[in-house]
Amino acid sequence: MSTSPALPQGNMTYPDGFILQGLVSNQSGYEYLLIPGFLFMYLLTLLGNSVIVLLIYRDVRLSCSPMYFFLSHLSLADMGFSSTTVPKMLQNLLTHTKHISYRGCLTQMFFFLGFGNTESFLLASMAYDRFVAICHPLRYAVLMNAKRCLLLATGCWVLGFLHSLLYTLMMSFLSFCASGEIPHFFCDLHPLIKLSCSDTSAIQMTTLTEGTVTMVGPFMVTLLSYILIFSKVLKIPSAAGKRKAFSTCSAHLTTVVLFFGTVIAVYVRPSSTYSGSKIRVMSVAYTVVTPMLNPFIYSLRNSEIQQSLRKYLGIKGGR
Predict the structure, then answer these.
(1) Interatomic CA distance for residues 267 and 211, integer angstroms
(2) For 227-238, what is each residue's pLDDT tens digit?
(3) Would strands 12-13 and 181-182 be described as parallel, antiparallel, or unpaired?
(4) Which residues, 6 or more positions from 158, have their beta carbon under 8 angstroms from its beta carbon?
(5) pTM for the whole thing?
(6) Which of 12, 25, 123, 283 is deepest in the core (most CB within 10 A)?
C-alpha cells in the first residue's frame, strides 16, 4: 500500500517516477554509437582523475603544495560529478528503460548540484591561490598555509552540498503532473521545475537570486583574480618571466573557461526559457567532457605532475 502523502485533487499526483528522454530517442539508432563513446569518456574520467589524486597524495612535494592540494579535491569532485549522471545515462541507453524513481531523481539532483557547486567553489579557490602566488609571493607561505587551505577546501564542500540540500528540500515539497517526462538525460533543476503543477514562484526566485549568486560569485572571484594576475604579469620586464607566470595559470584558466562558460549559459536564465535540445548538448560539455579533460589539461603542461608520474611508473629521464 502506498504511503504517499495526500495531495489536492486534480491533475497533480505524487509520481512513482519520471521518464528521462535522454540525448536521443531509443528508436534513432544513435544509442549504439553513444554507448561506447560515453563509456570510454567515463572510464577515462575515472582513470585520469584517480591518477591525479594518487600522484598528489603519494608525492610529499605535491601534497604540501596548495595548488596540488586543491587540484586533488577538484579531481574528486570531477569523479563524483560525472558518476552522478553518466552511469544512469548508460543504463538507460543499454536497457532502453528511461524510468527513474522519484527518490532516485531527487537523489541524483542532490549529488549533481552538490558536486557541481563544490567544483565551482574549488575553481575560485584555485584562482585565489594563483593570485596570492603571483601577486604576493613573499606572503604566499603565510596566506596559503596548510590550515587555511584545509578550511577553504572544507568550505567548498560544505557550501556546495548545503546549496544542493536547499534545492532538494524545496523540490520535495512540489507536486508533479501525471506526465513526468524530463527532457534531459538526468534529473536537473530547471526541467523538474517545469514539470511541477505546484506554485514554483519561491524556488524560481531562489534560483534567480541565491542560485545566481552562488554560481556567478565564484566566477567573479575567479575573473577578478585573473585580472589582477594579468596586470601583475604584464609589469614583469623579462619575456621569460612572463611566460613562466602565465604557464602556472594556463591549465586552470582553460578549465575555468570550459566549466563556467557552459554552466552559466545553462543556469543563469529563468526556467521558462529552458530549451531541452540545446541545454542537453551544453550539459554534456560540463558533465562529461570537462571532467574527462581536466587531468590532461593539468598534466600535459605540468612538469611536476609528469615527473611524479614517471617516478611512480619507474621511468627514468625526468629531471
Answers:
(1) 9
(2) 998 888 888 777
(3) unpaired
(4) none
(5) 0.86
(6) 123
